[in-house]
Automatic annotation (TrEMBL):
One GO term (biological process): vitamin A import into cell
Keywords: Cell membrane, Membrane, Receptor, Transmembrane, Transmembrane helix, Transport
InterPro entries: STRA6-like (IPR026612)
Chain ranges passing through the membrane: 20-42, 120-145, 188-210
PANTHER family the record matches: COILED-COIL DOMAIN-CONTAINING PROTEIN 180, RECEPTOR FOR RETINOL UPTAKE STRA6
GO cellular component, one term: plasma membrane
Source species: Rotaria sordida
Location of this chain's protein in the cell: Cell membrane
Topology relative to the membrane: Multi-pass membrane protein
Keyword hit for Transmembrane helix: yes
UniProt protein name: Uncharacterized protein
Domain of life: Eukaryota
Keyword Signal: no
Pfam families noted in UniProt: RBP_receptor (PF14752)
């Protein structure tokens, strides 16, 4: 690889491109940690000036703070509860800038829904893995394409020279090949980029399907994702698999996806979170007053 790329600016550019995710993560950590530390020190210094309710909120754990946010008027869970008895036409449209940029027929941005940290972490890992694979495949394969192109050109010339041309004295004359093997680097990079784009489109489509299936599970619709019934665990792959006959028993991915949707529904149902948040806030207020 050093013989192909050298040790100059090309190698430095390749190393920078490879380390982009690491630099982004390091920049986020370097900024986030000081901000959290300064915020915590500021709240401790300002603690004496706060009311009893605000002082009690500071003492809450992170899990309790996250749960109490569900009962806020502008939270996604509270907006979902408000829109339960509204039709799709009467539901207020999102005011976010990204909702105006994305056409509605491609993806409808909704303020009453947000993906969980599990989904975001999985997609972040997939994007990092896709980036590293694409970069390393291009870097490690391109140097061998030139050697392969030369070998392929020699092979084509040998095949062309094996064609015998007979003249009047039956002498055999070799003809040089007029066929030149095209460059392989650009088609290879184009193929890698096309594959990455197709995978990204598929992941975005899956993200929209996850939201649709979660909304269906929230309202008890089992048209796509079967209900959680222990007696039917064995038949999930057989009755709901997109594969054909004799293959549905091997569809472990669909069963795992069903389990993921049911887990998300059990942990993140908006009505349950709003109700639990309201109860927790009442309990904490009584403790603060008492």
């Amino acid at each position: 690889m050093l013989e192909y790329y050298g040790t100059g600016s090309s190698l430095i550019a390749i190393q920078l491109c490879t380390d982009i995710p690491r630099y982004l993560c390091l920049a986020y950590v370097s900024v986030k940690l000081p901000v959290m530390l300064i915020g915590k020190l500021y709240r401790r210094l300002k603690r004496k000036r706060l009311s009893k309710e605000e002082q009690f909120r500071i003492e809450l754990t992170q899990e309790e703070r996250v749960l109490l946010r569900a009962s806020d008027s502008n939270s996604a869970e509270m907006l979902y509860v408000r829109n339960l008895f509204r039709s799709a036409d009467k539901r207020p449209r999102s005011d976010a800038l990204i909702a105006r940029l994305i056409p509605k027929f491609i993806y409808e941005w909704r303020d009453d829904f947000h993906f969980s940290s599990r989904v975001l972490c999985v997609y972040s890992s997939i994007c990092l893995l896709l980036f590293f694979i694409a970069i390393h495949v291009c870097i490690e394969t391109i140097p061998y394409l030139h050697a392969f192109q030369g070998t392929l050109q020699q092979f084509v010339q040998r095949i062309s020279s094996s064609n015998k041309v007979h003249d009047n004295t039956n002498e055999v004359k070799e003809q040089t090949s007029l066929f030149i093997v095209p460059q392989l680097v650009r088609p290879f990079i184009l193929a890698v980029a096309t594959t990455a784009i197709i995978i990204i489109i598929h992941l975005l489509a899956l993200l929209a399907n996850i939201r649709r299936n979660l909304f269906q599970s929230f309202r008890g619709d089992c048209c796509e994702i079967p209900r959680r019934q222990r007696s039917k665990y064995v038949s999930y792959a057989t009755d709901y698999s997109p594969l054909g006959c004799q293959l549905e028993s091997f569809d472990a991915g669909f069963k795992a996806y069903c389990g993921f949707i049911h887990t998300e529904c059990a942990h993140r149902h908006p009505v349950m979170l709003v109700f639990a948040s309201h109860l927790l806030s009442q309990v904490k207020l009584k403790q603060a007053v008492g």
